[in-house]
Design brief:
This protein has 15 helices and 42 strands. With 790 residues, the protein is α+β, with helices and mostly antiparallel strands. The strands form seven sheets. Strands 5, 6, 7, 8, 9, 10, 11, 13, 16 and 17 form a ten-stranded antiparallel β-sheet that branches. Strands 1-2-3-4-18-15-14-12 form an eight-stranded antiparallel β-sheet.
């Protein structure tokens, strides 16, 4: 009874108590019920309105609720009033991330509430739990009614901190997404447990998206678990923190939720135009002579290509910018590749050899991660030293991009790097609280130094890990060293879609997988078929890239399926006007290119568990083939006025499931009615023939619009307005196409354009090839043109 009395006293002192206390208090509650007494409860909260929301105090816990915007609420709960603020380098400054908006406040004896123009937040004074709903009364999310927030005092890495947990009650009809990239094969995370810790193939981004139209950003870099094993309870738990800190974001459309997230943490920059073309890579090319030979063959055979990749072990000592003896005049070789319109990316690691000069300099300044061969990217000075001694010198040679491998980070090769910072102290603070932040600060340091050194080249980075806010860096994430099997392929599709729902628009995979299924995959017809299927899928990823641990990896090596590969490569380049225009929407509107169906059909429950189909932009429904020897696959066509088979032009009804033909050379693709799909001429690199005729395919059945974006293709002048937009509008009833007046200009703009307009129908305007007889040809000089298309 003495122990129970002590527990009771602690229970009375705060809403927030240790998990062991929860068990004890439950026993007290049961004992009180058996004796006919009322169970003890927490003291009533003391509520006060603040300039940006309200504050609630009960015992030691202080809960602050802030109205950041009409659709974003910030919640911070601390287990002690004097808790100091923890740095949040992924957030933009407070004026951008949480400027504050007008709200109304009300309180009675049971509850207090705050209303913005879109949201209402209610606190139960007795229980301390929060309820989020729209101002129309639509329920969105509730914290658990019984002890929602708990704090367990712990000592980690010599510091006193807390294990923190918040419990929520999701609704019975709700699907949950995001959380970064994981390899379980799951798309909808209802009923699942997900660890959020950086590792090769596993990316931790604590942004949760609901089909109900809200998002929850768990505002910490600590190692965290999402736990919905018990369907009525959703827990978010972190191993360390001075507070429980999260943002509630409301759409209701998912695009709006992601827009709010990027408004708080940063908008995605436009990548160089060449980065939307094809990347040729393998583990590994051993010299620039080899790279030049491969690039030369692509050009000789007129196979589209934009980038060649130099993977690891080009160095004499890892960490120093000194090439081994296989490399001769690096700058001269890069210049020769540039003359062939081939760009180059080189692998640069944060993992350093202790024999390298870079390591020694950082070690002398105590700017390495303790017990690891990694520089401390949370230290601004260390980021600058790393840049100056390694990637900065390579950029001067003429390299166009950096592959920042091992960005979780790994502590030494071949360790896989599973959340290694959790057991160390960092410059920013306790690694237990900053376990997942390394990839953001690593890539951010490289981007910021790059832009300070050379603004004529847009930043392009490739990395296999990411965190909150990293979309504001010019970095694409790839899914890591995955298996080259159908299992591996089928798991990448939902992984990538959840990554897109985590607010990060640029993502790719190793086409064909990294690890081969056996020693001789290239001679195996089954592997060549897998490679073709993966290549078809990769054509419709935001970044189009092949890589793998194979002796050769060029398209002609896969001789049994080479025609299929080349045809999809050429299709990617015909789509370049469409893709580059969507890239502008990513930057200007916080758009998402690779779109799970739940984004555009959020209220259709049939889309909630579809993690193997997606929209590529607003027009194209992509349906990867994920099984061996398949010649058909099931496809759900969501509600639309009509869908058109891209390959045949045949019209189909929306809202139905079909069996689509899927021979090896044909991944099922469908185009939504009302789409205006701009296709360019057949080119071999992204910036070739900028003035070539554009084919506008119009898919009848609904009105349509599209904005065709153009700029110089590189540099940052586009941010100062040096770009142009040509608005396209289709009136389906009158069959009139309007090409609006061009908006904006830039040096090198194509003043006069030819548009070839095609009304798509069965056998017409179908497939990847240009249509020989368009319905109309329009000469455009920048002024508005209206044309009746018959």
């Amino acid at each position: 009874m003495v122990r129970n009395s002590a527990v009771y006293s602690l229970f009375r002192s705060s809403w927030a108590i240790m998990p062991i206390v929860l068990l004890a208090s439950a026993a007290l509650h049961n004992a009180a019920q058996m004796s006919g007494q009322n169970a003890p409860g927490p003291p009533p909260a003391q509520i006060e309105q603040t300039s940006h929301g309200f504050r609630a105090t009960a015992g030691r816990e202080v809960l602050t609720v802030t109205a950041c915007t009409d659709s974003v609420i910030h919640v911070v709960a601390t287990p002690e009033p004097s808790a100091s603020a923890t740095p949040r380098p992924w957030m933009l400054d407070a004026q951008q991330s949480c400027p504050g908006v007008p709200f109304t406040f009300a309180q009675d004896s049971k509850a207090a509430s705050m209303k913005t123009a879109q949201l209402e937040v209610i606190i139960d004074i007795e229980r301390g739990s929060l309820t989020f709903r729209t101002t129309r009364g639509e329920g969105l999310l509730n914290e658990g009614p019984s002890m929602p927030r708990t704090y367990e005092p712990v000592e980690l890495n010599g510091d006193h901190t807390y294990r923190v947990t918040d419990r929520f009650s999701p609704s019975i009809t709700e699907a949950l997404y995001g959380l970064g990239q994981h390899q379980s094969g799951m798309f909808n995370y209802r009923g699942a447990t997900v660890e959020l810790g950086q590792n090769n193939t596993d990316v931790a981004i604590p942004l949760l998206i609901s089909s109900k139209g809200y998002g929850l950003m768990w505002n910490t870099a600590a190692l965290t678990w999402f736990d919905n094993r018990f369907p009525l309870e959703m827990k978010l738990s972190s191993i360390a923190g001075k507070s429980i800190d999260y943002y509630f974001l409301y759409g209701p459309e998912i695009d709006t939720v992601l827009h709010e997230y990027r408004r708080m943490t940063g908008h995605a920059p436009l990548l160089p135009k060449w980065a939307y073309g094809f990347f040729q890579s393998k583990d590994r090319y051993v010299s620039l002579d080899e790279i030049r030979e491969i690039a030369g063959r692509y050009r000789q055979e007129h196979i589209p290509l934009d980038a060649m990749v130099q993977d690891w072990f080009w160095w004499k000592t890892e960490g120093d910018p000194i090439f081994n003896s296989n490399y001769h005049d690096v700058s001269q070789d890069l210049d020769a590749l540039h003359k062939e319109n081939v760009h180059t990316m080189i692998s640069v690691w944060g993992l350093l050899d202790p024999e390298s000069e870079t390591y020694k300099v950082l070690d002398a300044k105590n700017e390495l991660v303790s017990g690891a061969h990694v520089y401390d990217a949370t230290n601004p000075e260390a980021r600058d030293i790393y840049w100056e001694r390694l990637p900065g010198k390579l950029l001067t040679q003429g390299w166009d991009a950096f592959w920042l491998d091992s960005a979780e980070p790994e502590e030494y090769w071949p360790h896989m790097g599973d959340a290694i910072l959790s057991s160390r102290q960092l410059a920013i603070g306790n690694g237990a609280e900053f376990t997942n932040v390394f990839p953001l600060l690593h890539t951010l340091g490289v981007q910021d130094n790059w832009k300070a050194q050379n603004k004529s080249k847009r930043v392009f980075l490739l990395t296999r890990s990411a965190f909150l806010g990293q979309q504001r860096v010019g970095a694409t994430v790839w899914s890591g060293d995955v298996y080259g099997t159908y299992w591996g392929l089928s798991h990448q599709v939902p992984a990538g879609l959840n990554f897109a729902l985590s607010g990060y628009p640029y993502w790719t995979t190793d086409i064909g997988g990294y690890w081969p299924p056996h020693e001789n995959p290239l001679s195996d017809p089954a592997f060549q078929e897998l490679y073709a299927r993966w290549f078809e899928y990769g054509t419709f990823c935001p970044i189009f890239r092949t890589h793998g641990h194979r002796p050769h990896n060029e398209l002609w090596i896969f001789d049994r399926v080479e025609p299929v590969l080349v045809s999809y490569d050429k299709l990617r380049y015909r789509l370049m006007p469409y893709i580059y225009s969507l890239a502008w929407k990513v930057t200007s509107e916080d758009y998402t290119i690779q779109r799970p169906l739940v984004m555009d059909w959020r209220t259709d429950p049939k889309t909630w568990n579809l993690g193997d189909q997606f929209m590529f932009g607003p027009a194209i429904l992509v349906n990867p083939v994920l099984k061996a020897d398949a010649t058909k696959r099931s496809v759900y066509l969501p509600a639309a006025a009509a869908w058109y088979d891209f390959w045949t032009g045949k019209s189909l009804t929306g809202g139905e499931e079909i069996e689509a033909d899927a021979p090896l050379d044909r991944m099922p693709l469908f185009v939504r009615a009302g789409s205006i799909l701009p296709l360019g001429p057949q080119i071999e690199y992204a910036t070739q023939d900028p003035g070539g005729p554009l084919e506008l395919r119009i898919y009848r059945g609904s009105d349509g619009k599209f904005e065709l974006y153009e700029d110089a293709g590189d540099g940052y002048e586009y941010l100062q307005g040096e770009h142009s937009i040509i608005p396209l509008r289709w009136d389906d009833r009158s069959s009139i196409l309007t090409i609006g007046a061009r908006q904006g200009a830039f040096p090198g703009i194509i003043e006069h354009r030819k548009f070839r307009v095609v009304l798509v129908g069965e056998g017409r305007g179908a497939g990847a090839d240009a249509t020989s007889t368009p319905n109309a040809e329009i000469d455009y000089d920048g002024k508005e043109v209206q044309t009746s298309i018959q």
